[in-house]
Automatic annotation (TrEMBL):
The lineage of its organism: Bacteria, Pseudomonadati, Bacteroidota, Chitinophagia, Chitinophagales. The keyword Transmembrane helix applies. Keywords: Coiled coil, Membrane, Transmembrane, Transmembrane helix. Residues 410-444 form a coiled coil. The chain crosses the membrane at residues 394-410. It comes from the Bacteria. GO terms for biological process: regulation of DNA-templated transcription. It comes from Filimonas zeae. GO terms for molecular function: DNA binding. This is HTH luxR-type domain-containing protein.
Length: 558
């Protein structure tokens, strides 16, 4: 969980922590947060391993000495973070430590630690293992844990929500991204956790989402909100970013006069902080405007400057916008050879970026399918276990009942032997009881008959919905079929021994009165193949090719 925090702030807080370790005692996670920030955001990255473990051990010993279990959990969290930021030590080791942290947090009912453990698991799967589906599962668990917690009790709530939104943004799921970002706007912490307010990034991302969803008015609103907040806080870089995005919206509307000054401002601020990728983006939009205005000299200067910035940034995806501009420029300058070269390059880069995006989406789809299969297998195992328990309990119950009945019978027999002078009234009472038992059994028999008819109907429906693609499917189908039409398959083989397996299947499916289309769907073949089997069967049975009724009667009479 890496946040951008200023180095001086980290050093200052760390100095206070180092001088007053007692200040960590008996505080809630929220109260302890600022004191612990320097360790997580500076010391953990810059110090050597021995110093880091000494610091963790000092916190652990302090917690043990004063019996502060929550601080002891913090020491465990510090220890796991050391391995989290050093995945080269082994993925299996880190996974085991994350599981241990989460289990301990759940057992001790320390919600803040459980949330952070789940969040770390999400990061681990998303950024290290690239198991995106598992990462989303952990993110959803995080959301369920934090959605009813106030930011005062858990200041990282906004950060967790924006991280979830970012994951959806990577997969271009803009609606889900907007949902979590809106939740994040309402989870503003009372303390600053980053160098710049998280709200700036949230508002800007929401503007981009609406831009991608072709909702320009909503996009404009959030870009303006970003600019107004950056202006209020006097953060020029964010003023430039939001101006450039708003200018791009005006460009898309062909309002070039409004777009140009906003884009120029973004380029100026991006140059000031040497963010060449950001500068190239707005420069390329400006170059597009110049080309539209047929100011080719200005367009050339802007495109060449943008090309230099793209190469300096190392952001390959920006070539997708640069190469089409170069193609347009050389076309306008009547240099068809160069125009053709950059057209090919533009197509290649676009195809490459599209393949990368599709590969990412395909990977997640495959992971989702594997997870669904795994969940189904787990559910099947649990169902089998549940059935085994029921069967075991049923068997135990039956044995116990049999024992009780045996004891009762033995007792009655003993009584009968011991009491031979029973009066007539007792005999009549027993006779009435016997008659009532017979009536109840008759009711049970009637009920079982009704259920049997229902089961037979259900079995027929199941037969009609079967799919026969393998021999295993056919054996399963035959077992079901024999429940409804007992002995039919045996009679078919006895009466028509020369039939091929395909013809036997046709006869059986015909007995269910299925259409050719339904037969084809069940067998996984086309209808002409089914017709061909029927024709061969008629020929073999010496039935006229146009006489379907005779074939149906033969099938029904077997």
């Amino acid at each position: 969980m890496k946040y951008l925090i200023s180095f001086l702030l980290a050093l200052g807080l760390y100095a206070g922590y180092a001088q007053q370790p007692q200040s960590l005692l008996f505080k809630s996670h929220a109260e302890r947060l600022l004191l612990m920030q320097p360790f997580y955001h500076n010391f953990l990255w810059t110090a050597d391993s021995i110093s880091i473990f000494n610091k963790i051990d000092s916190v652990r010993q302090l917690a043990i000495a004063h019996k502060d279990d929550d601080l002891l959990m913090e020491a465990h969290m510090m220890y796991v973070h050391y391995f989290f930021y050093r995945p080269n030590l082994g993925h299996e080791l880190l996974a085991a430590k994350l599981d241990s942290l989460q289990q301990q947090a759940v057992e001790q009912k320390r919600l803040w630690a459980e949330i952070l453990a789940e969040n770390l698991k999400s990061f681990f799967n998303f950024d290290v293992l690239h198991n995106y589906e598992a990462a989303f599962v952990h993110k959803h668990r995080v959301y369920q844990l934090i959605k009813n917690i106030s930011p005062a009790d858990f200041p990282y709530k906004q950060a967790c929500l924006t991280q979830t939104a970012h994951n959806y943004y990577v997969f271009r799921d803009y609606r889900e991204c907007l949902f979590f970002n809106k939740e994040a706007l309402a989870a503003e912490p009372s303390i600053r956790l980053e160098a710049y307010p998280t709200r700036l990034g949230i508002l800007n991302t929401m503007g981009i989402c609406y831009q991608q969803m072709n909702m320009p008015d909503s996009s404009d609103y959030y870009f303006r909100e970003t600019y107004n907040l950056a202006d209020k806080l006097n953060i020029p870089v964010w003023k430039g970013i939001s101006s450039g995005n708003l200018g791009h919206n005006y460009f898309l509307r062909k309002a070039y006069d409004k777009a140009e000054p906003l884009l120029l401002y973004d380029v100026k601020e991006a140059r000031a902080i040497a963010d060449w990728g950001l500068a190239s983006g707005s420069l390329m939009v400006l170059a597009n405007i110049s080309l539209i205005r047929k100011d080719f000299a200005k367009a050339r200067q802007q495109i060449m400057e943008a090309r230099g910035y793209v190469y300096r940034s190392g952001q390959y995806r920006r070539l997708k916008d640069l190469y089409p501009l170069l193609c347009k420029l050389y076309t306008a300058e009547n240099q068809p050879g160069l125009a053709a070269v950059y057209l090919d390059s533009a197509l290649f880069v676009t195809d490459s970026v599209t393949r990368q995006t599709n590969a990412l989406l395909m990977l997640r789809a495959e992971q989702r399918a594997h997870k669904a299969q795994y969940d189904a297998e787990i559910a099947a195992v649990q169902n089998r276990r549940h059935i085994n328990i029921l069967q075991r309990n049923g068997l135990i119950g039956f044995v116990f009942l049999l024992l009780l009945v045996s004891l009762w019978v033995f007792r009655e027999q003993t009584k009968k032997q011991q009491r031979q002078e029973e009066d007539i009234k007792r005999a009549e009472k027993e006779l009435k009881m016997f008659a009532r038992n017979i009536a109840e059994k008759n009711e049970i028999i009637s009920l079982l008959r009704e259920q049997s008819e229902t089961d037979a109907h259900d079995t027929v429906e199941q037969l009609k919905q079967s799919t026969i693609l393998t021999e295993e499917d056919w054996e399963y189908f035959c077992a079901l079929f024999d429940k409804v039409h007992t002995g039919y398959l045996h009679r078919v083989k006895k009466k028509l021994p020369d039939l091929t397996p395909a013809e036997v299947r046709f006869v059986v499916l015909s007995r269910l009165q299925l259409s050719l289309q339904e037969m084809a769907a069940m067998l996984g073949i086309n209808q002409p193949s089914v017709r061909k089997t029927r024709s061969r069967l008629k020929k073999k049975l010496d039935i006229d090719m146009e006489d379907d009724a005779s074939l149906d009667k033969l099938v029904a009479d077997i």
